[in-house]
Amino acid sequence: MKLFSIKGRSSIDGKHQSGAERIVSEKELENVLTQINKRLTRKPFDYLSIKVSLIKKQPCVIKSLKIVDVCADNVGEATEKAVKLLHSATGLSEEKIKKLIKTVHTGASPDGNNMRGAMIVDQKGERIELDPYRGVRTTEIDFIDRDEVLKKLEEKGYTERTADALAVSSKNMNYPDITAEFCTSDEPDYLTGYIAVKGYYYRITPLKTEGNTKGGRIYFVKNGINLKKLYNYLEKEAVLIEYTETD
Ligand code: AMP
Question: pLDDT (tens digit, 9 = 90+) per residue, 221-231?
Answer without folding.
Answer: 999 999 999 99
